Amino acid sequence: MSELGWEKRQFGHRARLALSAAEHLLMDEQAHAARTMWNCLHAWWQMMPKDKRTLANADAAIRQARKEIDFLAVLPAQAAQAVLKTYFQAWKNCWDGRVDAPNFKGRLRSVMSVDIPQGRDLQIKRVHRRWGMANIPKVGRVRFRWTKDLPVGKHADNNNRITGARLVKDALGWHIAFRVQLLEAKPEPHQFTEVGIDAGVNLPLALSDGNHQDHGRAPRLPDGSADRDKWLNTQEKSKLLRLERLAAQRKAHCKPGERTSRRLHHTYDQIRGLRAKATRRHQDWQHKTTTALAQRYGVMVVEALTITNMVKSARGTIAEPGSSVAQKAGLNRAISQEAWGRTVTMLTYKAGRYGGTLHKVPAPNTSRRCSACGFITPGSREDQATFVCKNPDCGWSGNADHNAAQNILHLYRTGHALIPAAGRAVVRRDKRVKPATAR
């Protein structure tokens, strides 16, 4: 088959690992060793002169450290090299202006992960319909949930194969995230069906054509906002409430400066597990919804939102205290739980996968302007869900998020798009200007 009209694509697939207690302990030790390796590299970078900060010198330093420190020798050599390459790539990204400078990784605030850079080391084999087996360096053969067909065995070749994996731990346990390379046909240009999408709190995704995407199963509170624990069933909500009360009681018995009890840590772990389960269900809804939108629409238009500014506290200062602090805090929690940025990221790469494009337009006044008359009249946005145009010559009323979605599409049609095509836009710093930490 000719490769004309075909292209290689990189995908990620995540599956849960079934580890024994001993294997779980080994994985934890490797993850802590990888984090320690990163911190040692960071200290080495700050200590060495600029002309000595080379990849060869850093490689020699970590090789020597692995010989002298038994704790670091727990980490496989390939995983240690992956930490080294990731650290140097982090500095390159910083110099290009994409991210901040690399920093120290704390034990409690960093994600536990171990990289397996070589796909051939995994030796993946499907056991039966629901389980597969993979080889983890220095751990052995472990089972993982087979929820998606992978290019292994006779289905693997130079174009379709697993190039590596990463082991990641969250509140639900250890998972393996495969890096999959597939040769796929280039998507044909999508039928140019245009739609404006507004991400909201009352309505998760409001579309300009009225095909709104709601959580469905999520109950509503009296103020119209979504329930905080909408992704948990009744039994799970009751269990979460009981655990939160139990944690508060046990924390009240802890004296200042006293070491936290194991029972309290165990209660916190149970709470994190329920929260992680709700997050996983939310991500599943996001994936299914964004896939359906990318398959249906050729041009999707969203707002260019700065979410970090939107979720800032309204507390103010002692001299100038803020107003409606509790209401703003509730709105900030609702915005964070909806994960608008993750939704836009999914729409971005899925639009390119199915032959469509994603565009962004300026966000100011999209929710305050009437989509029928085009005027901004004070007081038209009555609450989170209702928009009633106060223009005497108009009087249009409807859902506020639907009104914003129509305004978003109108901005795109009038030539106000900020990003012309699907892809992550990065505001780059001038290459001649280096960050202060690297000068």
Describe the structure.
This protein has 439 residues and is an alpha+beta fold. It contains ten helices and 13 strands. The strands form three sheets. Strands 2-6-7-1-5-4-3 form a seven-stranded antiparallel β-sheet. It has a four-stranded mixed β-sheet with strand order 9-8-10-11, with helices on both faces. A two-stranded antiparallel ribbon has the order 12-13. The radius of gyration is 25 Å and the shape is globular. The protein starts with 5 loop residues before the first strand and ends in a 26-residue tail after the last helix. The model is unreliable at 218-226 and 419-439 (pLDDT under 50).
User: How far apart lie the N and C ends?
Assistant: 52 Å
Please tally the β strands and state the result.
Answer: 13
Count up the helices.
Answer: 10
Strand order of the largest sheet: 2-6-7-1-5-4-3
Oligomeric nature of the chains:
single chain
* Secondary-structure element pattern, one letter each: EHHHHEEEEEEEEHHEHHHEEEH
Percent helix among the residues? 25-40%
Largest sheet, strands/sense/barrel = 7 strands, antiparallel
Question: Given the C-alpha coordinates, what overall shape results?
Answer: globular
Which spans have pLDDT < 50 for at least 5 consecutive residues? 218-226, 419-439
What is the average per-residue confidence, as pLDDT, rounded to a whole number?
Answer: 84
Structural class: alpha+beta
- Give Rg in angstroms: 25 Å
What is the strand content? Answer: 15-25%
